[in-house]
Amino acid sequence: MTADIIDGKAFAAQVRERVGRQVAVLKAESKLTPGLAVVLVGEDPASKVYVRNKGKSTAEAGMKSEEIRLEASATQEEVLEVVTRLNEDPSIHGILVQLPLPKQVDEMAVLDAIDPAKDVDGFHVINTGRQAVGLPAMVPCTPLGCIMMLKDKLGELSGLNAVVVGRSNIVGKPMASLLLAESCTVTIAHSRTKDLPSVCRNADILVAAVGRPEMIRGDWVKPGATVIDVGINRIEKDDGKTKLVGDVCFSEAVEIAGAITPVPGGVGPMTIACLLANTVTAACRQAGIEEPNP
Amino acid sequence: MTADIIDGKAFAAQVRERVGRQVAVLKAESKLTPGLAVVLVGEDPASKVYVRNKGKSTAEAGMKSEEIRLEASATQEEVLEVVTRLNEDPSIHGILVQLPLPKQVDEMAVLDAIDPAKDVDGFHVINTGRQAVGLPAMVPCTPLGCIMMLKDKLGELSGLNAVVVGRSNIVGKPMASLLLAESCTVTIAHSRTKDLPSVCRNADILVAAVGRPEMIRGDWVKPGATVIDVGINRIEKDDGKTKLVGDVCFSEAVEIAGAITPVPGGVGPMTIACLLANTVTAACRQAGIEEPNP
Q1: What HAMAP family does the database record attribute to this sequence (chains A, B) (predicted)?
Q2: What is the pTM assigned to this prediction?
């Protein structure tokens, strides 16, 4: 048997189109243009690519896009001033501060300063807490994208055994929390877990988010399981060139799983799509109107 | 083999004595008397007993104890006014609003109004979020008591398989989060879990917090496991009298487990002890001094 390949690129395109339709409805019916501001501090090349892509996708969806660039030498006070201004700007509904920040800037203090209602990255502790207890919250984009793909593929998730490998604050923990909210039986495994292969073999849903190339082998996968690979690792091939691989050994797992996300082209494209979706959600909540369902 | 019985009453007494010594040090060396305020709205008999016990234990530990009683007919505004006054009172370091509140009062709004630094119940979403991401937080008393008993019994918890049965916001979820912070491999099971007995049988640490009398049977317990029973259920005996039982069938599990908490006399007594410990923690953090370790 060969697994279904979950096409994250195609699914993300659907999500972005849906967001575009929502934005059109909001503009026409509520005179509301959702606005997303991205703050980039310094010249990190990867961050610059991300920020450019985010700005482009935001504009394509019909939203207002604002990009604020600060020098790598920016002080914490300068970054906080920008955040405060954006918090107060009624045309901005989502604020994203691109990480990592330069050493002289305290990331936690900056994230903490973002109005939780505008925290489209879902990293503010108030959103973490609200999501944990089941209140409406802004949810981190990557785990949100994973849940959307799982529900699209499997329908109802209730009662399924989900294993999340990795316990980071930006993926593993919120992923586990979202799966629990879907009534999965959730196990969080990590570097201290004993006999990780057999823990993984118990999973109907296996989410890998550890950042170790191809760590999860084919025989760790339960036959027919749905495998979501959040890892993006660049490794060197025999010919000296590099390629991107996930945390799962795709060539092995694809023979065992029922469905699997590839790397690249799986979870990755969903992250920006979910950022746009979160911005619409944030704008509607701030305006006190229901999210359109076009 | 018969399991060790974990004597929660004796352990709680040790914790209370330790808190008493800490309070003595704080008074002598820092002129700081930790203060705990308990707010009781209405005449619920069980709540009145709890509040009385809390006040008594607080005073016994040498702390300031304040009890505020409001009529069952109190408005939300009246309750919020009390909370605001206590937030601003520098002699009060911990605020506990006894639940449940009368119907006309929005519990979430009241809990949300408590200064997170004084939230000794650990129910504020900011504390939930801070605990989830690994920042210093006020932690709910019952799961904190369970972790203290587990560490006392087992020492290092890292790498152990922990299964939490139940996913309430006040016990199950924070318990899972605390066990994860101790580097356990954590599974959260609940009413939708398939084949709960075999999930439980995988647990080195089994925490039952479902509120269903004696649901967890002896043959669900892995031989030698440590069983923490958070349930307190009153059931009718054959002779028509009632007795308290846990969520675990104690008479069966005691033959299989390595260690087990009884009901009553297990987790229960730890809750007030942890409330006192949390009040000392809160007072020290508010004063910006280190917690004494006498």
Answers
A1: THF_DHG_CYH (MF_01576)
A2: 0.96
